[in-house]
Each structure stands twice: as C-alpha cells, then as structure tokens.
TrEMBL record:
CC terms in the record's Gene Ontology section: cytosol
EC number: 1.5.1.5, 3.5.4.9
Annotated residues for binding of NADP(+): 166-168, 232
Protein name: Bifunctional protein FolD
Family matches, as InterPro entries: Aminoacid_DH-like_N_sf, NAD(P)-bd_dom_sf, THF_DH/CycHdrlase, THF_DH/CycHdrlase_cat_dom, THF_DH/CycHdrlase_CS, THF_DH/CycHdrlase_NAD-bd_dom
Tetrahydrofolate dehydrogenase/cyclohydrolase NAD(P)-binding domain residues: 140-287
Function: Catalyzes the oxidation of 5,10-methylenetetrahydrofolate to 5,10-methenyltetrahydrofolate and then the hydrolysis of 5,10-methenyltetrahydrofolate to 10-formyltetrahydrofolate.
Length: 297
C-alpha cells in the first residue's frame, strides 16, 4: 500500500478563500482592514522560512501586515515596549512574536505581555488556560491546522490512539489538548521517552514536531497510521546546492510505503500554518470588534 499524500497547500488554498471573504466583510463592517503584526528578533532559521511567505499571504487575503525585524541584541525592555504599543494599537488585531527568541531575552516574560485577545499564536497563559478548560481560545496555528486536516479526512476522531512527539508550547502541548478534545487517547512522547518505536507502533495518529531530521523511521509506524509531520529541519547543503533542503521529523521515503496517509515536508502541515494564522487573525478581529465569531471558519 502506498500512502495518500496529504496536500497541505490545497487545504490552505481552500481555507484562504473563506478567509478572504471574511476579511472583505470585516472591512465592509468596520471601514478598516484586519491587521496582523509580526515581530522577528534575530535570525532563527525556521522563523526565516515563516516570515518569507507570511507578509504576502496577509496582504493577498485583504488584511494589513505590519512587520518588525529587530536585531538579536535587542534589550528586553525595548521588546516589551513594542508589544505594549501593539496591544494598544487599534489597527492591530493579531500579534505574533516569533519564537524562539534569542537567549539573552526572557521569552516567558515577553509572551506574558501579549494581549490574550490579540494572541494569534495562543501562547499566552490565558489562552493556554482557555484551551485546557474548553473555553473559546486562540490556538497555536500548526496544531490547529493538523486538527482541521484530521477532521476533514476522518470526520470523527473518537477513541483513536494518538501519539504526539514533542512537547513545545507552540506545537506538542496544544496539539495534545486538541486531540484530547476530539476524544482521542493521547500519549505525549518527547526526548526522554523510553522506547519511542514501541510507543509509536500502537498509534493510529502520529503527530511529530521535535526538530530532528528523519527521527521517526518507517518501520516504527503501524500500517494504516496517519502521520502528520510538523518538523522543519534544514539539512546541510549537498554538493551543488546553495542551501540545504527542508525536511521533516519523519523518514518520509520509508514511511510512505505502508502508512495510510502522510504529510510531506514542505507542502504538508507547514503549508497550512499561515492560512490558520490568517484565520486566527480574522477571528480575533471579529471578536474584538464585537462582531462575534465569523461563521464557517
Ligand atoms: N511564535 C511563533 N509562531 C509560529 O508559528 C512559528 C514561530 N514562532 N517560529 C518559527 C516557526 C516556523 N513556522 C513555520 C510556518 C510555516 C512554514 C511554511 O510556510 N512552510 C511551507 C513552505 C516551506 C518553504 O518555503 O520551503 C511548507 O512547509 O510547505 C514554515 C515554518 C512557524 N513558526
């Protein structure tokens, strides 16, 4: 059996169409465009991949994009002052501070400054709490995109065995909560997990984001598993390449032969992240303007 390759780009294109309609309706109702502010400090490689395409997609959806690129040695108080300015700015509906921040900055303290109702990454303590408690939360984009893909493909996820590999605040933790809310039996695996192959072999759903290229081998996955690969790893350049290839956490070529479905990298879950970010921005904009939730997103 050869797996279905889940097309993240096509999924994102469908979502972006709906978002474009909601963004236009928002402008009609309020007389302004929904706005997304992105803050990038320093030069993390995964973040560079992200920023490249994000500004363009925001404008294409009929929203406004505000970009702040700060040097790696930006002092804490300067970054906090910027976040507070964006919190107070009525043209800004969503704020995204790219992670990880350079080591000299206190990441948790910066995150805690973001207005939870503009926190389109769902990383503030308030949104993390809302998610766990089953309240209306803004939720991290890649896990939300993964959940949308799974529900689109499978409908009901009740009772399925899901293994999440990685426990980051942007991916693993919210991913596990979302799967739990969909009634999966969730196992969280991470760098200290003993015998990862054995843990993975029982999984109907595998979701990975650990940042280790090809960590998960094909024969660790049961045939029939659905595999969502959130890894974004840049390999060293091969001779003749200028930049190394971007690859995931799963040994795709091995896995594709016997799982039921798998997302490629690139073109898989990463390709949905930006569309979900725009979705979160529009949701935040509607809620904060007192318009309620936009329907159908
Ligand atoms: N606060 C915060 N939130 C994030 O969501 C966040 C972050 N920080 N820091 C960096 C990582 C990385 N990330 C990506 C999102 C989309 C693509 C993406 O568009 N990928 C496409 C294109 C890849 C390419 O251009 O080769 C794909 O996978 O097909 C990549 C990477 C979000 N991140």
């Amino acid at each position: 059996m050869t797996a279905v390759q889940i097309d993240g780009k096509a999924f994102a294109a469908k979502l972006r169409e709906k978002i474009g309609e909601k963004a236009a309706a928002f402008t009609d109702k309020t007389g302004r465009k929904a706005g997304l502010a992105v803050v990038l400090v320093g030069e993390d490689p995964a973040s560079q991949v992200y920023v490249r395409s994000k500004g363009k997609a925001t404008v294409a959806a009929g929203m406004e994009s505000f970009e702040y690129r700060l040097p790696a040695d930006t002092p804490q108080d300067e970054l906090v002052a910027l976040v507070r300015k964006l919190n107070a700015d009525d043209a800004v509906d969503g704020i995204l501070v790219q992670l990880p921040l350079p080591k000299n900055l206190d990441e948790k303290a910066v995150i805690a400054e973001i207005d939870p109702d503009k926190d389109v990454d769902g990383i503030t303590p308030t949104n993390a709490g809302r998610l766990v408690l089953g309240m209306d939360a803004l939720v991290s984009c890649t896990p939300l995109g993964c959940t949308m893909i799974l529900k689109d493909m499978l409908g009901d996820l009740s009772g399925m065995d899901a293994v999440v590999v990685g426990r980051s605040i942007l991916f693993g933790k919210p991913m596990a909560q979302l799967l739990l809310a969909e009634n999966c039996t969730v196992t969280m695996a991470h760098s200290r997990t003993r015998n990862l192959p054995e843990v993975l072999r029982r999984a109907d759903i595998v979701v990975a984001a650990v940042g280790v290229p090809f960590l998960i081998k094909g024969d660790w996955l049961k045939s029939g598993a659905i595999v969502l690969d959130g890894g974004i790893n840049r390999l060293d350049p091969e001779p003749g390449e200028e930049k190394g290839r971007i690859v995931g956490d799963v040994a795709f070529d091995e896995a594709v032969g016997h799982v039921r479905a798998i997302t490629p990298v690139p073109g898989g879950v990463g390709a949905t992240t930006i569309a979900v970010l725009l979705r979160n921005t529009i949701v935040a904009a509607y809620r904060n303007a007192g318009l309620g939730d936009p329907e159908g997103l």
